[in-house]
Write a structure and sequence with these properties.
This protein has 17 helices and no strands. The chain is an all-alpha fold and 432 residues long. Helix 5 packs parallel to helix 15 and helix 15 packs antiparallel against helix 16. The protein is globular.
């Protein structure tokens, strides 16, 4: 008996997860390229700022988009995508919203406060000495002294007329009228303007986590992303009409940055539905390149650039790049004053390359010190629990009691009426 000839049956099954993984399978919290890309983004911000702060004109992306985007602004947008993805993950996994906010506080504020002090007490006096021959001028200015710069911006948010721009914008931005002859006048640290917007996004995520949106109603984030994309598209095509509808300084920046932050949040919440595909990655790059001559970069970037960035974060082989530390935050917050100082010394007259490289190297030194001396020690407090504080307070109280034992209370002496006289005991109380 001759066996029947087998026929090749065409499989109708979809590709397996190993052949075409999604973002959930491609993302490894302990092995990804986020640290590498963070530092690349911070370096691109320095590169982009070198054009304006050094007086070299505008970068290529700014020329293509007619001033709507720069390489630095696109890099900041990717910072917000990264923050949206990781912060949303942190909020979803956090045991409590206060602990989540504590982690965000440690990441932003300690290094930021030290940066304000360094700018006000070190960099500004050196600039004053180079420009006017005195170190103390910055402390005696009538309204924009170093003290006002540090104290006025310490809280990130302001109440300047209760307007959106008044709340979110860094003020004052100048110290003692320094840098009046620089290509970018009188601005000490222009990179800090994004931090109030980022902290606002953190607070929004905390509010959404409190009401359970991140766990039970993720479609709300998708709807928020869609609404912000529509507002950003409206501003892209009709900026005058957008201003007439929303005549608030800072509204354009708020919409754009929150759009990219929400894009990162959506990619995390829907990570099991987003394929990690090389074909989609290449298509995203082609779409971004084609959007520049067509004048629709602002519409394509929130989707295509977000996908391409996260694809790279999961695919690049730099999983242990930041094992020695994450120096991107320090690079970002110190680069602008360093570049302004270089411009004050006229380093840009030696050429763009020397100006950029010298600014990058000096910024790297400050970023290293910031991480080692401020950021890393503060980030170790993320794992501290309140119970450990209580145990330490209890042990301290026990040691103090052993060293200074309290006298036992005397027995009550009965009076003739049969009542007792209470003897007050002295207790050691520790404020926790």
């Amino acid at each position: 008996m001759v066996p029947a000839r087998s026929r090749r049956v065409r499989s109708t099954n979809r590709p397996t997860a190993q052949e075409r993984p999604n973002f959930a399978q491609a993302f490894d919290p302990n092995n990804n390229a986020f640290g590498f890309l963070r530092l690349i983004l911070a370096t691109l911000v320095i590169f982009s700022h070198s054009f304006s702060l050094g007086g070299f004109g505008i970068d290529r992306l700014e020329a293509f988009t007619k001033g709507r985007y720069t390489i630095g602004l696109a890099s900041v947008a990717m910072f917000f995508v990264l923050s949206g993805f990781l912060v949303c993950r942190s909020a979803a996994a956090s045991r409590s919203v206060p602990r989540f906010l504590w982690h965000r506080f440690l990441r932003i504020f300690p290094a930021y406060w030290v940066c304000l002090i360094v700018c006000g007490c070190v960099i500004a006096p050196l600039m004053a000495f180079a420009e006017f021959g005195t170190l103390t001028r910055v402390f005696s200015a009538p309204w924009n002294s170093s003290q006002s710069f540090m104290i006025g911006n310490a809280g990130l948010f302001h109440l300047n007329g209760f307007s959106l721009g008044g709340i979110l914008f860094i003020r004052p931005t100048s110290i003692a009228d320094l840098l009046a002859h620089n290509p970018v006048h009188r601005t000490i640290n222009g990179s800090l303007w994004t931090l109030p917007f980022e902290v606002s996004c953190y607070l929004a995520v905390a509010a959404l986590a409190t009401v359970g949106v991140l766990r039970r109603a993720r479609f709300v984030l998708f709807g928020l992303f869609a609404g912000l994309w529509c507002l950003d598209a409206f501003d892209w095509f009709n900026p005058d009409g957008f201003w007439r509808c929303f005549p608030y300084p800072g509204m354009k920046q708020l919409v754009m940055l929150c759009l990219f932050f929400s894009a990162g949040c959506v990619c995390f919440l829907y990570r099991e539905r987003i394929p990690h595909s090389t074909a989609i990655f290449v298509t995203s790059l082609v779409a971004l390149g084609g959007s520049l001559p067509l004048g629709v970069f602002g519409l394509i970037a929130p989707i295509a650039m977000t996908y391409a960035f996260l694809w790279l974060a999961f695919a690049l082989p730099f999983g242990r790049f930041d094992r020695k530390g994450d120096f991107s935050y320090g690079t970002y917050i110190y680069a602008f004053p360093v570049q302004q100082g270089m411009a004050l010394l006229r380093i840009q007259e030696k050429g763009f390359g020397l100006y950029f490289v010298s600014s990058l190297l000096l910024t790297a030194v400050l970023a290293f010190l910031s991480y080692r001396l401020i950021e890393a020690p503060c980030l170790r407090l993320k794992t501290v629990r309140m119970s450990s504080f209580r145990r330490r307070a209890g042990s301290s109280a026990a040691r103090l009691t052993e060293r200074f034992p309290t006298q036992p209370a005397e027995p009550a002496i009965p009076k003739e009426s049969g009542s007792t006289v209470g003897v007050q005991a002295v207790n050691v109380v520790f404020l926790r």
